Amino acid sequence: MNDKLTRHKPINASDRDIESPVWDMSQERAFLENLLSQRFNYFLLFYSITVAGFVNAKNVIYAQIVLTFGALIVSLLALVLRRSQQKLNHILDDDLFKDKSHPAKIIDDLAVGKIGSKRGYIGIVIPTICSLILIIGAIIHLVYIIFFYYSLTCYHP
Questions:
Q1: Assigned domain for 48 exists
Q2: How many structural domains are present in the chain?
Q3: N or C: which terminus of the chain has fewer CB atoms within 10 Å of its end residue's CB?
Q4: What pLDDT shows up at residue 119?
Q5: Which CA distances in Å does 89 have to 28, 92, 103, 124?
């Protein structure tokens, strides 16, 4: 077990049920899973609003502004999701999955099978892909504006 995680006296399951509520790693895991899912939902909402704003923009300059600021904010939200996912992974891997009798370990063993855990998709993979899509889209759209749009719309006598 990670030494940083054992700053308080460990409590066994039977004592936990008798004593008043104690904030332990199981409660921290539940809190972080809930927080991660709420942040992921907010991330998807903002990503969708950015894409819809880009598609519905009245002209190319407004579209570029929406795409650039959307890419920036979505990338920052992706960093927050990554950090929350890392915290959750540390709690699960360093503490709860070491205890073979913990319900999280039992369910993980039953659910994982041969393909491994996919819990990193929500906190790392999907936010990274969405951020890269918006960043690359903003760069491509800017190149289009600079090199193609104005050269096609300008009057050349």
A1: yes
A2: 1
A3: C
A4: 80
A5: 12, 5, 16, 11
